[in-house]
Amino acid sequence: MTSGFSPLSDESLRDPASAYARLHAQEPVPLLADHAPPFYTLTRHADVEAALRNIEAFSSEFGQGPRFTPPSGMLSDPPQHTFYRRLVQQAFTPAAVKALAGRIGALAGELLEGVANHDEFDVHDDYAFPLPVVIIAELLGVPRDAIQKFKLWSDASVEAMGAEDPAPWVPELERMGRYIQDQISLRREMETPPDDLITRLVLAESDGARLDDQEIGSVIRQLLVGGNETTTSLITNAVWRLLERRELWECVVADPSLVDRAIEESLRFDPPVLGLFRNTTREVTVSGVTIPEGTKVMMHYAAANRDPAVFDDPDTFSLDRQNRRHLAFGLGVHFCLGAELARLEARTALATIVARFPDLRLVDAGERIKPFFLWGRRRLPVRRGAR
């Protein structure tokens, strides 16, 4: 990029409306040359959509993070990816997700009951984090007393994925690996293992083939991170934006049917993942920019979600928006497997907190989480009652 402008700089993220407008109009495919490895960024909705569908030219084979990594389970390309997805998606069918609705609602109520006597609490720490991580832990069949370990390991996985040097997080990742292996071994040794997702992965078979322990561990790690960090940010971001413009919160309080629109608009306006990466298998040209073979390319979901060619008044958070062509969950064969579970958890979380604490007010939004390709709040302190 000749101008040195970065769509992921602190300056750009403080004012994404101006940054994304500049990208769409002037630099739709910037090169971040000072990153290791350097990568191009696709920012127009049409370009991101086309690249996500073109898995032959834009491959996931060497990771969807900013560094090149060995092929791995769900992050591989078809036909390997098809095999893994077929085995795992049984836990995320519409019927399976619908069956979780009662448990998610009960847990949301339980978590808010825990802060019912507090004038102030943290939406992130007390509510948005424990809800999805407890659900994914229960799906996997992991004891609830391991929840804090899950949080630590999930954070370490995310930090390592975004770091140029992942070494500081290796010890925690190794501990996570040993814990997961113990859970897998336990189920292999049991005559009648529990009916949970780890057991289903151990017993799953497709065309006579089964997953080995390493492959099962890879899938579990991906589900752990995907089922925790992103949904936590979705819930936190939605509450943040509604309280930031308190008239929007009051609209949802007055009309709870707006919860679904609020969640979809939050996904568009503040996608928990700013973007994921692909790897070019050949030289490609996008919006007049030639990208060499073997190059990392970021699919900038957040910028695409603010493209004025697709969304009217894209920099306004609107509860009236009907257009749902956002790319927060990706597209194509790698469309987020847990998208409907995340939606259900977020809708339930928002509906429950709005009904329980209609007088909620924002204290401050705090700093954003890291690494650079994720978008959420580290904390979201709120206060009950009038100012």
Describe the structure.
This protein is an alpha+beta fold and 387 residues long. The protein has one domain: Cytochrome p450, CATH 1.10.630. The chain is built from 17 helices and 10 strands. A 5-stranded mixed beta sheet has the order 1-2-8-5-3. A 3-stranded antiparallel beta sheet has the order 4-10-9. It has a two-stranded antiparallel sheet with strand order 6-7. Strand 1 (31-32) and strand 2 form a beta hairpin. The longest helix is centred in the middle third of the chain and has 20 residues, at 170-189.
What is the strand and helix layout of this fold?
Layout: H1 10-14, H2 16-25, E1 31-32, E2 39-42, H3 45-53, E3 58-59, H4 80-88, H5 94-98, H6 101-113, E4 120-122, H7 123-128, H8 130-140, H9 147-162, H10 170-189, H11 197-203, H12 213-226, H13 229-244, H14 246-254, H15 259-269, E5 275-280, E6 284-286, E7 289-291, E8 296-300, H16 301-304, H17 339-356, E9 360-362, E10 381-384
Parallel strand pairs: 2-8
Antiparallel strand pairs: 1-2, 3-5, 4-10, 5-8, 6-7, 9-10
